[in-house]
Design a protein that fits this description.
single chain, 753 residues, mainly alpha, Herpes Virus-1, Leucine-rich Repeat Variant, 3-stranded antiparallel β-sheet, two-stranded antiparallel ribbon, 9 strands, Znf_RING/FYVE/PHD, ubiquitin protein ligase activity, RING-type E3 ubiquitin transferase
Length: 753
Amino acid sequence: MERVCKDSVGMTSVPGSSMDSAEPLNYHAAARQGRQAEYGERWGEGAARYFSIEADFLDEDQSIRLMPVPESFFCPISATIMSDPVATVDGCAYERDYIERWFRERRQAHQSITSPTTGLPLPSTTLMPLLALQRAIEAYLAHRPELRRDHMAGRSFEEAAQVLQTDLLEKQAMNTNMGDEVRRLREANKALVRQLRQSESDRAKLLQQLQQARWQLGIAEEPTFAELPDGALQPSSSDESTAFASAAEAEADLSRLQLQLARTEAQAQASASETRRDGSRKSASRRGPFFLALAAVLAAMAGSVHVAKGRAKAPPGLEPMELEANLSPEATQVQVAEMSLIASDFRPRKFGRGIPELIRCVEQLRSRSLEERHDAVMSLMATAREGKDMRKAILQAGAVLPLVELLRERSPALQEAAAAALGALCADGDQAQATLLRAGAVPALVRLLASDSSVPTRAAASAVRNLAANHNAAQLAIAQAGAITPLIRLLAHSDRGVQAQAASALGNLAGDSSENHFDKQVMISQAGAVEPLVQLLQSGAAEVREAGASALRMLVTNNADNQVAVAHGGAIRPLVKLLRDEAPSVREEAAAALGNLVFFNDETNSGNQAAIAEAGAVPHLAALLLDAKGQVAETAAGALRNLAAQNANNQEAICREALPSLVRLLRDPHSSQTQVEAAGAIHNLAAGNAKTQQLIVEAGALEPLVALLKGEAPRMREIAAGALWALARDNPELQSAIDRSGTIQAELSKHGS
């Protein structure tokens, strides 16, 4: 399974902490507010497109309907559009003045503080400014000045909307003169269609020349051609690719021809050398002109093919992108192994480094025999398992396009094998993923997600998972192709393997932990993924539980909206239960998900912090600090670090349960990252809490923290200095106890300045 880093759990700093200088904090806060403001403006501008046409554009009886003001812009208490929206801890939005008045009235009446919307008690009266919603309302009203104008004149927004409706209907008659322009555009469109057909005819002629050359070289059967309407001949094929894919296929064919020609020339040279040793050179001299002429033909064809390719353009969003993040070798091995569908009694061909034999296998993918095509796919999969170099050779041999064509076959077994092979080929990072994007693999794989058979569906979901891993262009293309809805449906599939692959694919579509992917995360959440993912946490299969927890982790990473949605969806208690799961990978993913539920963009989610602590997570996370499996202890320390941030109750609870184990991790020389997470947790435990500071000193944390200041890693020294500064900044006696020579004190002063 593809795994992404969990930097958002353990590597983020805590807002308002004493180790952070004012300048970085202000920078991050300003950047966050800028992103929220930009999102809100786009939201408001989109909502301001306030009418829809419910008929054909040229229909005289078309109905133009005004879109109402979005309900989310209204305060539930005042029923008016908000100007200063804020959110309570249960996620409901109100006008600040009205919700504060509500709180005051409840206190004066000596009543419990409840939500005006749900009637349920609120654990806190903390209000969170909704900058994005505020900017959305401002942008909405800015793009609908008639509403603001009529409202200021004494009319309600509903009355203003009725006035605008009347004005809109009056101006509808002015659009009748657009008919001539539309007819002119239609004629121009017909001319473009004729040019497109001519280009297709030219392309078919080039493909005909390539097919004939392949037949003459003996690496393909004698071509059969179908006559086009204009009299041109086109190779008979079930190919449904675009003009871009056809041009790419032609280039791949040319590369294979050149490789075959090189192999034939090498054989000719060897034969000529043997002939010279036998005293006969005439046969070798007769081969030379033939190969020179054939090379000239191929060179001429290459020029034609590249011209055709230059005229074709890739679909928007499918251009190859260079990314810094690549899959680790370990993750690649896991993915390729999972994609293996080779039967135990199947004996694939071994190609070794024989590229010509590999090309012949790729050619066999287009065989008329179903059995031969299936055997060719299986042989390619066996070769792909031999390592990254062989997978690269398969890509260079042009296997992607014929494999994409096989996804459209009627045989479920062949569809399964082709999808599995494509998933294995794209497991090596962005270049392989870009090759699949250009070949049109995404639409074909998305169609397979709705297959009635679970086998090709599982293989397609696994291929989509690998294709989306750490590749923004692939994630966008998959989402635009409509993969999110069928993937969510597959979460309820009867096959647990299908469930696991679908959940992993949704997790990879949500992005990675290295940057913000707010729009994609919200898209998946609003499509209804949260509830079925929460149900997967109670599955009887460990791989399903792990995939569900991992997907939820990615949905809530740096996303406050999804954090609230996942918490309301009932995910906290199942995740806490998974902290005791028998599978180490499940325990690790559950701890990471809980850590990400309480942290977003240098801010904490106090409501989720309290809910997770009340669910009993702290003792279980403390127990995981002693877990030696994988990165469980490191991830648990990161989760405790986030739970302790700016939360006095959690700080004291964590000190009671986990402080000795955290101090022990500080002394662990085998994992520097675990030491960093433990030091970060102690920093958050000490920040602004004199009681926990004393407990930390008594637990013996000073000595290992001072030792970490001498470490080689800058990040380790920074976190250790921050923890010591949080302990000593308001305690002169402790400052003296840490360092009586002044050297470490100077270091602490530098970090605290």
